[in-house]
Amino acid sequence: MKKVYMLFYLIFLELRKASSGVKYFAEVDVTDNCNLRCKHCYHFKGKEEFKRKEVSVDIWKKRFNELYKTGVRFILLVGGEPALRNDVLMLADKIFPFIYVITNGTIKIPRNFNHLLFVSLDGMEEINDSIRGKDVFSKVINNYSGDKRVAINMTITTSNYKDLEDVVNVAKENGFRGVVCNICASGTDVEIPLFIKKNERKMIIEELKRVKTLYPNDFLLSKRMIKWYENPDHRGSCYWGDEVLHFDVSWNRRRCFGNNADCSNCGCLAGSMQNPLKRVLSPREMMKLV
Ligand code: SF4
Ligand code: SF4
After folding, report:
1. Within 6 Å (CB) of ligand 2, which residues are found?
2. 49-76: b or e for each residue (b if 16 or more CB lie within 10 Å)?
3. Does pLDDT of 279 surpass 60?
4. Which atom of ligand 1 is the closest one to the Cα of 37?
5. Which of 230, 231, 240 to mutate to test the pocket of ligand 2 (most atoms within 8 A of CB)?
6. What's the CA gap between 215 and 170, in Å, rounded?
């Protein structure tokens, strides 16, 4: 029932935005800190240490209330690792009706936080842990197995794309909603072999299409989203970049995740989702990701 309500509410907000310009979706870094140091991380850019003072919950309350007053009803909480600030997540839960979180899955988010969690796994255990760190795969499964809030979020690299089908099966076995993916396409200071260069896209796209054909209900990229990845140059036309509000921890505005997004070679899941009204055209995928 919540999903149907959310769907109609989303359509209402989108129509309101079209008529009055009120933006209703915000993406916010709730912390600059993280307990992992993944090899492909755009946030840390290869730095070992990035310990920053956390923002107090009172300041978050003020910021969130201001966002709500301006019309924001959907919020995506990212970082760093947002589960380091479960207090901020629970605060957001009191203010915003619809929340998504992107988390590395190694720190539990309380069960009464009833929102969609994009939990990262970048392949089966061996590859995932070589990118994300020792024992991360097993921690994620131990923390979230059977949790219906979870959609697995895989960052596709040249080293892990052949694991996609197996990850879809892991999601099925553990009762998750399914699997989505980003393409690791831009960033700085990271191990170059992980990146998908423009001329390597074709083999990745073929794999996405193959897995979609085999698991249409569990691999949650719609055909339209795969097409976004197939044609990666989105300079000048991106719903996520233009119609969504983006904030870093210091409350500076930006256009996308981090500050180094390359719109000429986009691999962002958020970008691939495009306008929510168009997502309605892929109801199977949309209903699992609201
Ligand atoms: S979990 Fe996320 S924020 Fe933390 S190092 Fe990995 S990619 Fe970066
Ligand atoms: S990197 Fe992709 S998702 Fe981000 S603003 Fe550019 S086109 Fe949009």
Report:
1. 234, 238, 240-241, 255-256, 261, 263, 266, 268, 270-271
2. eeeeebbeeeebeebbeebbeebbbbbb
3. yes
4. 5
5. 240
6. 12
Q: What is the distance between the alpha carbons of residues 256 and 249, in angstroms, rounded to a whole number?
A: 14
Q: How far apart are CA 120 and CA 176, in angstroms?
A: 12
For domain 2-288, the question of CATH label 3.20.20.70 is answered with yes
- Cα of 249 vs centre of ligand 2, distance in Å, is 19
- Write the CB contacts of 145 (distance below 8 Å, at least 6 apart in sequence): 174, 175
Count of Cβ atoms closer than 10 Å to residue 212 Cβ: 20
pLDDT in tens, 108-139: 999 999 999 999 999 999 999 999 999 999 99
| Per-residue pLDDT at 188 exceeds 50 | no
Q: What is the pLDDT of residue 192?
A: 46
* DSSP, residue by residue, 145-186: TT-TTEEEEEEE-TTTGGGHHHHHHHHHHTT-S-EEEEE---
> Is residue 181 pLDDT above 70, yes or no?
yes
d(CA 203, CA 206): 5
User: Span 56-67, mean pLDDT?
Assistant: 98
- CB distance 79 to ligand 1 below 6 Å: yes
